[in-house]
Amino acid sequence: MKSYNSNQKRKNVITTVAVFAAAVLVIVLSIVFALSARPQSTSAEPVNTASKPVVEKYSAPVENYTLGKAASIDKLVYMPSLNMWKTHNGVDFAAAEGSKVTAAYSGKVTAVETSALDGTTVTVSQGDGLTAVYKSLSSASVKVGDKVSNGATIGVVGTMISETEAGTHLHFELKKDGKFVDPLDYIDVEGAAK
Q1: CA 156, CA 168: separation in Å to the nearest integer?
Q2: Considering the entire predicted model, what is its pTM?
Q3: What separation, in Å, do the N-terminal and C-terminal C-alpha atoms of the chain show?
Q4: Closest Cα to residue 92, out of 32, 133, 151?
Q5: What's the CATH code of the domain at 141?
Q6: Is 103 within 8 Å of 156 (Cβ atoms)?
């Protein structure tokens, strides 16, 4: 009897070890198979995870400019001409009076308006929810419904009462889906301090 129990115990141990080894082998093979079945990236370039939007071919809307007041979309700044604190929803491009204002991007003119505070304003719908607003013009050379291409003349730099301290300049605003965004996220300008 002793030899029978001893042989039986040995067989049970061997069977248990074999079952355990087989289970480990199945797990290892499952992991190897899962890893080899994953799609591999063939691109050597890193994925762009920047928060800034990527828009091509925007150009500065005025030649021979000096970058003036930056946009302060969500921060109040003092506006001396108005003697009040408010957001500055665009970027000022200081330029000589009479300098040409050009479309920063192609689109369709949706409004041409003149007001005592902002001078002449031209609004251009650019598609993809983007709208450009050109303020502080002394005159516009486009009308509602006109299609403009990047670089096309849309008006002439002037002044605006709400920003007289800035002198002659273009006040350029950009909206994405109706909300103001920083134009310098779209236009690559020299000397842009953010």
Answers
A1: 10
A2: 0.67
A3: 90
A4: 133
A5: 2.70.70.10
A6: no
* C-beta neighbour count of 113 within 10 angstroms: 13
Distance between CA atoms of 169 and 68, rounded to whole angstroms? 8
Domain count across the chain: 1
Confidence of residue 47 (pLDDT cuts 50, 70, 90): very low
The Cα 76–Cα 59 span in angstroms is 27
Average pLDDT over residues 143-155: 96
CB 84 within 8 A of CB 92: no
What per-residue confidence (pLDDT) applies to 70?
85
Is 14 contained in some domain? no
* pLDDT tens digits along 29-39: 666 556 665 55
Question: Is residue 5 included in any domain, yes or no?
Answer: no
Examine residue 128 and state whether it is found in any structural domain, yes or no: yes
Q: 131 is in which domain, residue-wise?
A: 66-185
In this predicted structure, what is the pLDDT of residue 79? 79
Residue 160 has pLDDT above 50, yes or no: yes
* Structural domain includes residue 156: yes
Percent of the chain exceeding pLDDT 90 equals 43
Three-state SS at 66 = strand
Per the structure block, which two tokens stand in for 55?
């828009």
Tell me, what amino acid is at 86? Answer: K
Q: Which residue has the tokens 């007001």?
A: 115
Rounded Cα–Cα distance for residues 160 and 163 (Å): 6
